[in-house]
Amino acid sequence: MKTALRFALGTALTLLGLLAVTFFIGRVVPIDPALAVAGDRATEAQLAAVRESLGMNRPLVVQFGRYLRDVAHGDLGQSILTANPVSEDIARVFPATLELATAGIAIGVVLGVPLGVWAALRRGRAVDQAVRVTGLLGYSMPIFWLGMMALVLFYVRLGWVAGPGRIDLAYYYAVPRVTGLLVVDGLLAGNFAAVRSALAHLALPAVLLGYFSLAYVSRMTRSFMLAELKKEYVTAARGRGVSEARVVWRHALRNAAVPLVTVVALSYAGLLEGSVLTETVFSWPGLGQYITNALQNADMNAVLGGTLVVGSVFIVFNLIADLLYRVLDPRVR
Amino acid sequence: MNQAVIEQSLRGKRWRQFRGNRLAMCGAVVLALLVLVALAAPWLAPFDPHLGDLQHTRLLSPSAAHWAGTDEQGRDILSRLLFGARITLYIVGLVAVIAAPVGLVVGTIAGFAGGWVDTILMRVTDLFLAFPRLILALALAAALGPGIGNAVIAIALTAWPPYARLARAETLLYAKADFVRATRALGASPMRILLHHLMPAALPSLIVRVALDMAGIILTAAGLGFLGLGAQPPAPEWGAMIAGGRAFVLDQWWVAAAPGAAIFVVSMAFNLLGDGLRDVLDPKSAD
After folding, report:
1. Which of A148, A226, A300 sits opposite B249 (nearest CB)?
2. Nearest CB to A14: which of B130, B133, B250?
């Protein structure tokens, strides 16, 4: 109970800190918000009136309080670019990002965990070196550049995948929006041609994000497995004549899975962030592209709203990782 | 054997071990070349990095005259890459010079002072650690306005927290060591202990950590440049050059490929060097 309280308090404090940071960033913007509302032909008196109505001449603490109240009511302000409330915009684009990041993490885990286990078993041999090099390349390449080059190769030259965007134009309005995840919505509607089109568009950016999460997941799996395989219970199990496959996959991996959950959760959150650059390259209409467009048009409400959402997701994922760790490992309880 | 001799032989052993790590040496050599290229760019570059011939040399593919081809303004890409090395080094160096000392000061003070000072400083540090770094840097850079100086500030503001954590851990380790107790017994002021003993003691592991982070800093800076928030045209910043080449990537792919390859080589070199340094200085984590 006490730990639960501490967790809740810690998370609340972190969220409050995030809000303070976005509020502060909104304050230091060199663009005068009053000027943006009133226009540059406004008289001094008009400007003062606008400042008054925006609450800009109140003390900072009061302004921060108002900001907190607005955010708590789901009000992130209005986007200059789309003229919609930022919260509505984000609700519209978020599923696209979720779809992409989920596909990416699925690829990263499904391939990364077995690769990491394999590398740990063949330590210092070819597989191990290959995993190490894969990781090194992943840590050293700019994701947006790799995305562009992959697009040129696999879409333009080879024609293996569909191009930028989420789905072919022909299917654009063919699938009614239920979850916002095009693949799921397509399946629900029974429109398999649309599903195929969506998957063809999803493949390349998902593989790209998947590669970056694979680099991290396989490296961590390898080191967790190495630590487990050294332990006495593994030696004991082998001594009892338990088959090697069972020792590795049932005994060692099960224990290595506990810290791995944290790694996967953090990697998932990292993909949500990594999508900012990836989405820009693939014209993927998600949160990342929304933030980028807003950045390039000095639409600060949208930028800060997007930052707030990504930051909150990040913090929540951290919390989930922590909690899962406690559930899975009875020793920490 | 006295202490100095032991230390010297340990240093010699580490240096031999480091030299024996071929990959790490490769990284070091590439980075040394990068520094040389940055210094000698005006003499090495075959063409002006800012001026192109729009009539005759627009979007040429790589050739004997233009090794890496030319861009949409007819500028020689190789020359721009060479000058871009300066910008990359400038950003990386400046971020390290800002973020590492901030982390060092926050961490050592927290570890040395303990109590509520420690609690507050570490709460703030954890707060920043919990944020997504790239997004925060983007928002900061957007708020401060585009430009290379602001990009540096934005990256540095998101880079210091791990250094503070590390410096605190080191300080906790050394604050109880005999040499610190002895100094205190001799009547040294807390300020003196902090500045002359604890901070220098925390420095080596901090330097390794900074070296390991360099690749990430380069990639973040390139990302900011790509999104138009870093160095402004016509500066030959590598990330911005990739963004410039994006419009022509389908037909003239080399315009975007070349600067990306440069970023890749340099951040790879930093990764190799960092790994090598870590293996030598912290053998436990070599697994």
Report:
1. A148
2. B130
SS (H, E, C) A175-218: CCCCCCCHHHHHHHHCCHHHHHHHHHHHHHHHHHHHHHHHHHHH
Please report the residues numbered 169 through 198 in chain A whose beta carbons come closer than 8 angstroms to any beta carbon of chain B. Answer: none
Closest CA to B275 of B22, B4, B5: B22
User: What DSSP string runs through A276-293?
Assistant: HHHHHHHT--SHHHHHHH
Given a contact cutoff of 8 angstroms between Cβ atoms, the answer to whether A117 and B236 are in contact is no
Q: Model ipTM? A: 0.85
Q: Kind and range of the H or E element at A316?
A: helix A300-328
Instruction: From residue A316, give the alpha-carbon distance in Å to each of A36, A306, B111.
Output: 34, 15, 28
Cα–Cα nearest to A97, from A233, A202, A219, A234: A202
Q: Are B71 and B246 in contact (CB under 8 A)?
A: no
Alpha helices in A80-191 (DSSP H): 86-121, 126-140, 143-150, 182-189
Residue A224 tokens read as 């967790």
CB contact under 8 A, B143 and A296: no
Residue partners of A206: CB distance under 8 A and separation at least 6: A100, A103, A104, A107
Residue B143 corresponds to which amino acid?
A
Nearest neighbour of B242 by CB, restricted to A137, A145, A223: A145
Which structure tokens are listed for A161? Answer: 């995948």
Helical H runs in chain B? 3-20, 22-44, 77-113, 115-130, 133-144, 148-175, 178-185, 190-193, 199-226, 238-245, 254-281
The candidate with the shortest Cα–Cα distance to A179, out of A96, A106, A286, A101, is A96
Chain B contact present for A149, CB below 8 A: yes
d(CA B222, CA B151): 10
Counting Cα atoms < 13 Å in the Cβ hemisphere of A89 gives 28
CA gap A182, A174 in Å, rounded? 11
Reduced to 3 states, what is the DSSP secondary structure of residue A331?
Answer: helix
> Whole-angstrom Cα distance, residue A172 to residue B147?
38
| Nearest Cα residue to B161 out of B85, B230, B213, B208 | B213
Q: What is the DSSP letter of A156?
A: I
Select from A258, A216, A246, A253 the least CA-distant residue to A231: A253
DSSP state of A153: I
pTM above 0.80, yes or no: yes
Burial class (CB in 10 A: 0-12, 13-18, 19+), A159: exposed
- Tens-binned pLDDT, residue by residue, of chain A (333 aa): 677 787 788 888 888 888 888 888 877 666 666 666 667 777 888 878 877 777 777 777 888 888 888 888 888 888 878 888 999 999 999 999 999 999 999 999 999 999 999 999 988 888 888 888 888 898 899 999 999 999 999 998 898 988 888 888 777 777 888 888 888 888 888 888 888 888 999 999 999 999 999 999 998 999 899 988 888 888 888 889 888 888 888 888 888 888 898 889 888 888 887 888 899 999 999 999 999 888 888 788 888 899 899 888 888 888 888 788 777 777 765
